[in-house]
Design goal:
With about 170 residues, the protein is mainly beta. A hairpin with a 2-residue loop joins strand 2 and strand 3. The protein has a single domain, classed as Sandwich (Jelly Rolls), CATH 2.60.120. The chain has a 5-stranded antiparallel beta sheet with strand order 1-9-6-11-4, with no helix packed on it.
């Protein structure tokens, strides 16, 4: 199986009948990662969650929109990569999933009245090593759709990308 080094939108077929539909979201045989931690997030319109990453105990993520619409954003943090600092965008709606390899900061903006997001992760959450980059970082210039985001207290305190860049040796 080819090693995945960039975020990408996953394609999964929906099987419709008179009851609704059935959709396979995660098949272990399709990935070089095992999902050991699953989480759920509910967000209101204009909420921005992110840009989060683990300094140690990196996490590969599969993000699925269960309801609503989001702008999903990730940033390459692998200093030796030709795409270091590159921002990846995915407009996502119900039933769509995105694969985000480890060494990426990740966040999303809720574009609909609300959104329900399912996370599959290959590593447990490590509170002591949680880090982030400001949603409005001047270097990254992420193009969010809202001008007045709703943020957590923690997300308002992240260190900027250039400070992070100076600290890392190699990822």
């Amino acid at each position: 199986m080819k090693k995945i080094t960039k975020p990408y939108l996953l394609k999964s077929k929906r099987y419709f009948d008179k009851r609704g539909f059935f959709q396979e979201l995660f098949l272990q045989k399709n990935f070089n990662t095992k999902s050991i931690f699953t989480a759920l997030a509910f967000s209101k319109k204009n909420v921005i969650r992110g840009m989060h990453f683990q300094q140690k105990n990196k996490q590969t993520k599969i993000i699925t929109v269960l309801s609503g619409k989001i702008l999903d954003v990730s940033v390459n943090l692998r200093k030796k990569s030709k795409d270091f600092g590159k921002v990846f965008y995915f407009n996502m709606s119900e039933g769509e999933s995105v694969y985000i390899p480890n060494y990426y900061a990740h966040g999303y903006e809720c574009l609909s009245k609300n959104a329900l997001i399912l996370y599959h992760l290959d590593n447990y959450r490590d509170v002591e090593n949680e880090c982030g980059i400001p949603f409005d970082d001047k270097y990254l210039k992420i193009k969010w759709q809202t001008n007045k985001p709703i943020l957590s207290k923690r997300d308002k305190l992240h260190e900027d990308f250039l400070s992070f860049k100076k600290k890392i040796i190699s990822l």
